[in-house]
Amino acid sequence: MTSLTLQLKRWPSRQPYLFLTIAVAVWWALYQTLIPFSEALVGLLPVARDSHLGGALQFFFYDTPKVLLLLTGIVFIMGIVHTFVSPERTRALLSGKRLGIGNGMAATLGIVTPFCSCSAVPLFIGFLQAGVPLGVTFSFLISAPMVNEVALALLFGMFGWKVAALYLGMGLLVAIVAGLVIGHLKMERYLEDWVRAMQNSQSADYEHAAMNWGERIDSGFHHVREIVGKVWPYILAGIALGAGIHGYVPEDFMASIMGRDAPWWSVPAAVAIGVPMYTNAAGIIPIVEALMGKGAALGTVLAFMMSVIALSAPEMIILRKVLKPQLIATFAGVVATGILLVGYVFNFVL
Question: Does the model's pTM come out above 0.85?
Fold first, then answer.
């Protein structure tokens, strides 16, 4: 090992504050270049940017480093946080003293985190890693993509405060109740073995006062190696699927089965169509507006929107590395039931 390599390896221990400052600056700079980077990559290819393929490639080149950066950053931070706050304290905070308080806190946290479904997975993993109850983590995972400030602001601007408020209330209700149901079912045994082992390894309290910042940073890097090293292939596969579908949204076909006079099965059909797709709230709202302009019913369209951003197939692929199929199926079934209820309520009320 060269002298330079040894110096770089010892840098976090010797100058932890300088290291963290530079690391945060580099991470932020990389994150800010994602859009121009993805556009530049597409520009180097013999593909028209405004074509379906061009849009899919740009989406893949943008979302892959974005999710990996989010995952690395969040897991690194959680690794450092663990050296200050034990998993037992984190679990106690989000478990709540009464039934549902932890779920409500987690769902509310999701409102202020403007993540798409795949981007919310890293924080979901971080919660599991900290020992937060399974049902509570699912309340966050559902709320973060589905009920965030981006979706609410766009809905308010396009449809008014009544629609935005009703969407907020119903979305939070779905997230909280779904988390409660999953927590009540006691399905921790359906976490993948490596996640359960990771939780068990965090069960002992830390000797906080004895750790210096160099050791805390080493803990962050250890968590990144343990988690990112295991899930990145699933992230690539999930985003690749999402990018392929993203460029080919069949608006005319969808509008034809979502009309105001469509039969009762139009709501579950809209949910079934939305699940294979993948985008965030900001990306799906223009599609919602286009469908509404073609005569689609608001409740049916919002059920479609919720399924796209809270039950996307790419999200399921990424979650497969963390959850066993039984738990994924339960999660999808509970959330889909809630979304169907939202669609029917909107169609009945408005």
Answer: no
